Amino acid sequence: MIKLRDFRTCDFDYMIEWVSDERTFYQWCGRDFSYPLDLSQLAEYKRSVDISPGEFAFTAIDEFEKPLGHIGLKIFDQDKGCCMLRYVLIGDERMRGKGLGSEMVRLALKFAFYRLKMNIVALKVLSRNTGAIRCYKKLGFEMAKFSAGKHRPDKKESDRYDRHESIIMYISRNKMQDDAVKMKDSIKSTKRWLPS
After folding, report:
1. Angle, nearest 10°, between helix axes 100-110 and 130-138?
2. Could you tell me if residue 27 is inside a domain?
3. In whole angstroms, what is the distance from residue 162 CA to residue 185 CA?
4. Total structural domains in the chain?
5. Phi-psi region of 146 (alpha: psi -120 to 50; beta: other; left: phi over 0)
6. Sheet harboring 3-6: ordered strands across?
7. Which of 88, 128, 165, 184 has the most CB atoms around it within 10 Å of its CB?
8. CA 87, CA 110: separation in Å to the nearest integer?
9. Does any domain span residue 193?
10. For 35-71, how does the pLDDT look when each residue is reduced to its tens digit (9 = 90+)?
């Protein structure tokens, strides 16, 4: 069983290790950060999350509190109750494809729908990330729209990121099916969310 807790400074080294190659980096964050990821970028990201009442970052941990992954949420339309799931990452490549990502996303959705009272959670994923797309579909996400772009293998990874099609997916609170895991037992967040 995994839990989500607030993203901490002690997680920075894990994050840098997890996104050490260019492909993983751009698949994880697009152009929101600069490759290679470093401590100063993560410190700025954490500072932004800490001061923004509508932005959240979590580390997925196991029963021994070992970091396993990262996931974030950002409210983009408070009046309509819409937020974006972002920066979803399973740290250890050997753990990918084993249900950990689904569990992380499920916990983040519960936080968004039941703690933050959001109505819609959206996300953006590269079309080449078929494992993530399968995971999101199994959880009930639907495809909303596509942005054009084609892969050109003669370019470096950052250019290839720009040339891949991005898929916007979303899920509504009504579509989300509840399960036996209680949110209060699965997410440890000390951050207080205040509507602006």
Report:
1. 50
2. yes
3. 39
4. 1
5. beta
6. 142-147, 166-172, 120-126, 82-90, 67-77, 55-61, 3-6, 187-188
7. 88
8. 17
9. no
10. 999 999 999 999 999 999 999 999 999 999 999 999 9
